[in-house]
């Protein structure tokens, strides 16, 4: 793996930048910059007049690092995947690299949803963005395996004098190629329980996450987008730690799900429920998800008009 990294850098397949080019490097765990295995900092990059994100692994492992870099170099062509820019080294004499990414100016999806009151059009459009990013990965035979609202970031752009928000998938630290014989899939590390495939929750040492596991995670994300709430945030609210996690895991395995909020379009509710079905065979593939979301988006003007009429009558 080290040889691949050196080869890629030496042959300029990948850019490596001097660390002193980056200014005002700030780590902020409270803004989604702290994960289980990595830390992400924001930094100014004056020579390019842009802001970037720098990611390092908490316990640097060359194989894991190179695997994630390889995933990003494969998937750089989608606007719904966070753009990988290259590498840098905080310590020029050390072996630990940092990944350099485009900066998401509106933070991660969870923080973004809580910061603004969004209309249905924007919510469904963000859902489509995420589905398109996941479709791109699945076309490349990449399984993300850790898809949740903290691993989706939002960029704000101005398009034709209008403000547009674009959702992008990030953090390929757990991603694998579908065809890989992945021994690390049997570690029993669960991740974020509300977004984790119940089949994996039920048998983490032996069940291999697959594309339908990503679809399950997407179903929960659709619910969070529609509600602006973290899934199961009120579940056993007075309890914390392993006992709550154990109880929540048991409930999810036994088909316990969140309820959708009032005025969520019926076809959106139906789609998210199909995605989070306990039976992987009943979950749609990502192409079907995109087709359904496009249909939902096209029908939103009628839905909004109907909701407005209902609201006036109450």
Automatic annotation (TrEMBL):
Organism: Rhizophagus irregularis (strain DAOM 181602 / DAOM 197198 / MUCL 43194) (Arbuscular mycorrhizal fungus)
Gene Ontology MF term list: ATP binding; protein serine/threonine kinase activity
Keyword annotations from UniProtKB, A to Z: ATP-binding, Kinase, Nucleotide-binding, Transferase
Highest taxon above the source species: Eukaryota
PROSITE patterns assigned: PROTEIN_KINASE_DOM
Protein name: Kinase-like domain-containing protein
Higher taxonomy: Eukaryota, Fungi, Fungi incertae sedis, Mucoromycota, Glomeromycotina
InterPro entries: Kinase-like_dom_sf (IPR011009), Prot_kinase_dom (IPR000719), Ser-Thr/Tyr_kinase_cat_dom (IPR001245), Ser/Thr_Kinases-Pseudokinases (IPR051681)
Record domain Protein kinase: where: 26-297
